[in-house]
Amino acid sequence: MKIFVSSLIGGMEDFRAAAVEAIQSLGHEAGTAEAFSADANSPRVACLAGVRDANLVVLILGGRYGAIQQPSGISATHEEYREARGKKPVLAFIQQGVEREPQQAAFVQEVEDWEHGQFRAAFSTREQLRNEVTRAIHQRELALAAAPVDANELLSRALAMVAHQDSRHFGQARILLRLAVVGGPMQQILRPVEIERPELARTILQAALFGTAPIFDTSESNSTELISDRLSIGQSNGNAVSIDERGSILISFRVPSERGMGVVLEEDISERLRAGLTFSAALLDQIDSAHRLSRVVVAAHLEGSGYSAWRTRAEHQHSPNQVTYTRGFTEEQEEPVHFQPPDQARAALAYDADTITEDLVALLRRQRI
């Protein structure tokens, strides 16, 4: 495995050497700026190419920011971080007990605020950094050593999850949108004792109500239950989220229907799917920060929509009292929708959420026309 070491060079030589030692002790190839050509025109380009060529990036942040690069207006380390972010795993190690320059403090804050796709650890001494780098890479090795991803098995689980009808909520929320996110390779992500802990349920509920992508209604009552290996948190209106020990997530949304007209608005579906994908990405980062689940399958299903027409908000505003039911009334349930091939990189949940949402909406729309 190729691992690029990114940090300020001046004053950080001993820490960089410790990181290289850790990488090489595990049998991997360390890429560093020092190893590139001394050609004055190539170091920046070579380092960014080294980041793109690496399987993993080790980011080490101390007190100093470094010289500003042209034309980006940020430091070389900052450039390397942004080149890697969202495209490959970043293991970030942040030095403690140092006074940070203002730009470096802002850089550290940017790294710490990024919710998707990276491991973070603190260090003070050379030996601590070496141990933390060794531990983090080893954890990733264990994740990669898991069984190969069986996309068809993940898809089967996702389809079974979204197709399940829950009679407890059906009468109160006649139309439900279900979104399943199933990760692989299949393995245990939450220990039995972890999924039973009240702290996990409280954390999920807090994020569902007040997080960056809230999926619950703050005016509704909430309930929590553990059924077998699945923790479920639901609301009286039909909104719900559940997760099992393998990290599989199921989100249910109540979908409003325009009063008296039996109309489902496309924008309502899109908004809920987008929030569900963002929420799922954040939840996976919380329970699986080492990214043991590297691939995901996404499936969606509209339940109880057989008596409704599908329209955009603009179409409905144009003729709110005239609705054409092109599909006709039916009690039959459509099949869940998914992609082919079914699996994609886990990072897509955060960075391609808009694209995934658009395509899921298109697949659901086809069933209604």
Task: List its traits.
five-stranded parallel beta sheet, seven-stranded antiparallel beta sheet, alpha/beta, 369 residues, 22% strand, 14 strands, elongated, 13 helices
Architecture overview:
- The protein is an alpha/beta fold and 369 residues long.
- It contains 13 helices and 14 strands.
- It has helices at residues 13-25, 43-53, 76-84, 102-113, 126-144, 151-163, 167-170, 192-196, 198-210, 266-287, 313-318, 348-351, 353-368; strands at 2-6, 29-31, 56-61, 90-95, 118-123, 176-184, 222-227, 230-235, 240-244, 249-254, 263-265, 295-303, 309-311, 337-345.
- The strands form 3 sheets. Strands 7-8-9-10-6-12-14 form a 7-stranded antiparallel β-sheet, with helices on both faces. The chain has a 5-stranded parallel β-sheet with strand order 2-1-3-4-5, sandwiched between helices.
- Helix 1 (13-25) packs parallel to helix 5 (126-144).
- The longest helix has 22 residues, at 266-287.
- The termini are far apart.
